[in-house]
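step=predict obj=Large ribosomal subunit protein bL35 n=66
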Amino acid sequence: MPKMKTKGSAKKRFRFTATGKVKASPAGKRHGMIKRSNDFLRNSRGMMILSEPDAKIVKSYMPYNR
């Protein structure tokens, strides 16, 4: 059976922790920062851990990166 392909878009957007959880950047930080509240900007720094249902979908896109 041939190898499964990894989705290129998922490769660029998601990372895995050592325990297998999926990390992603919070949404809403590309442009238009002037109208965002300081609380929103502060809470959107860094990476976040995806919920289990979302992580399951991402893991199906990246079969060899667990």
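step=describe
The helical segments are 8-13, 38-43, 52-61.
step=end
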